[in-house]
## 1
Amino acid sequence: MKTGIRSWLDERLGISSIAGFLRKKMVPQHRHSLWYYTGSAILLFFAIQVVTGFMLAFYYKPTLEGANQSVARIMTEVPLGWIIRSIHSWSASFMIAFVFIHLLSIWIAKSYRRPREFTWMSGVFLLVFTLASGFTGYLLPWDDLSLSATKVGTDIPRSVPFVGVWVTKFLRGGEDVTGDTLTRFFSFHVSILPLLIFAFIAVHVYLIQKLGMSLPLSVESKKEKVKELPFWPNFIYREMVVWLLLFGILMTLAIFFPPSLEKTADLMAPAPEGLRPEWYFLFLFQTLKIFPPKILFINGDTIAVLLMFAAAILLFFLPIIDNKPAEKKGKVITFFAYVFIVFAVTMTVWSLL
Amino acid sequence: MIRGKKPAPVFLLLLVFFLAFFSGYDLAQQETPEEQSQAAQAEKEQEKIVSSPKNIKESTGLYVFVGWIWLAVFVLVFFLRLKIKEVDRLNRLGYFSNKKK
């Protein structure tokens, strides 16, 4: 019976060729193998985001009058609604944290080297889309804090010469944050960004399958034969252990530390005290805060935003910048990864103090 | 004429004071900025919706649920470890590389 169903499906879907491919795929085993699990952890949290996001969308109303009330209803009336919202919120944080860890591990291991330039670049796009998802999702509860944070966040591009004002207007759907911004952010959060993330994950995974899993430079330079494990079933079973443990941690945090909801945002009210963005934007927020208002007759914000933009461009083109042959690679670029970690952690802690 | 006008503001002030005094209003009850901020914070806290179990039954249910999740996780991890040992043994024997051919 089982063999019959399998052959019936195989005839129509060609499952055996996929299974054959997975069996042939090998995963290198070395002392840095732990970082390979971060990629699949991102996929796990993204899947949780999609499922819980669909559930929340059944009840959420993206209107000025309905947004905050519908979230309040999800939290107080809908059965298990508050847990679903909490899982959605926590898995977003986990996903962003793992995207950062994954990117930094690749940066430090120099796994972006030829021929994996496009794999790296698609990963940088995924980082941007994931952060954008977090930013757009933050406004949706439409409370005082989210409104003020969005006002500050969408005002940042205004400092950029020539295109800044247009970008701010585009993000807000007008001069100021209004109901149009809410519907715009909702549309980005539930359709445009998830579609882009799906597309770029597909490209990213395809490139990983095509080029194979990379070896860190430190392992590759030893010129010893590296032990390998079949992806299916040896590596997948190991990944399942990681997924289960992460799922347990996620559920525990979601149940015991659910996000709260403040009163409906008042468009005319002044910004509340202690205004802060989500944790993953804190280092950027603090960097902007410490810049002086004027540097050599130029607006300090403009310089800060341009510097951040330049850093993002450099990050994107990292494989092109660091394109020396493996044996001649210096440690300066790896050193910058550690500098970035220290900088981000320091700024985040400073912002929290 | 001028002298006659002087008592009017004093009289009005006294009237306000006595009216306030007898209506129970404390003129000294001016909130300091700290008190105002505390009051605003308290008001904000009241308006904030916090997700939490509503009664002891729900609270116990949540603890049981979390316990059940972790029990399920550990049981599954235990079985997965057995499976990992088994497939690693098969891999060492070259079972999967034979299959590839």
## 2
Amino acid sequence: MSQPAIAVQGLSRRFGKRAAVDSLAFEVPTGGVCGFLGRNGAGKTTAIRMLMNLTEPTAGRALLLGLDARRHHAELMSRVGYVAEVPILYDWMTVREMARFTSQFYAKWNAAAVDALLDRFGLDQRQKVRHLSRGTHAQLALALAMGHDPELLILDEPATGLDVLVRRDFLESIIQIIQQEGRTVLFSSHLVHEVERVADQIVVIDQGRLLVSARLDDLKEQAGQSLEDIFVGLVGAGRGTEVRQ
Amino acid sequence: MVQLKLDPASPIPMYLQIVEQVRRAVACGGLKADDEMPSVRALASGYLINPNTVARAYLELEREGLLTKRRGAGTYVSHEAAGLREAQRTRIVGGLIGQALEAAQDFGWAPERVRKAFEERLNHMGTERKR
């Protein structure tokens, strides 16, 4: 077996007394699409920020592409693409300026690929970022994250706030992206339906802890349930009726 | 080309949905020997699903002998598929009868009652056909 694209080993982060992420451990195989599921506030963003070396772990570590996320940050930045929950884009720039600006941070930049993605999304490059809708905003962030041709793409709630049609487009672009062999995607979501179409692996966390990490097909075969039922069963187990509302 | 009805929200894994529907298409004759299957890439983008899922389904169908890969030329329905068709049919009908029998057992029906219900249904089908 080749080395996993992501290996999370006992990763923990405390904020004061609260453990936002608690001894998290899972692996994502190279070439896979991992859906990182959890309710709002489950610790997904904190975990992802530790993968990206934006938040320091209290304990444990994460390996991306076999490299320690903290010690090899610089190298990883050139090989990993990342779209934050709230992508930082400059309002006063046009789409074209934003792309050029981003390209300057990378030694290797595939402008043609970014243009092609922007075209596919139907983005007008002369448009000011300020005037983009929420959906096109997310698409621009995705296109920019693809510019340095990353081997691993990490997306934090990429489709949140997108309407149904734009979300379909977005999923389609994720599929396009993974068509290229060996490329790995991890994306977080609190929406089961968003994940189950494209993910082949599911990682579920709740209250900072890992509940399950498995292949989606295996999970369904073993449980004989839909992912939604599995998810509600897992997340609801420790809480009694709270989840039902 | 085979039309698939895929439901990502179903409890049935996606790869199995593809496998089942291709099996069925072969059993019904909708897919015949030498028919070309869409590429993994085309099927994945057409149905907006993960290519790994399609690849897994194709692998399973190749293992069963229904599909065969030709070097550099894509995936085709195999020549053995016709021979396997009868086996597929037996398997599908057998599976459905099995489900009916399970239900009857749960209700505590005696074999005689099951047989009667089955024959009534058969006769009913016969008269429907004649009309």
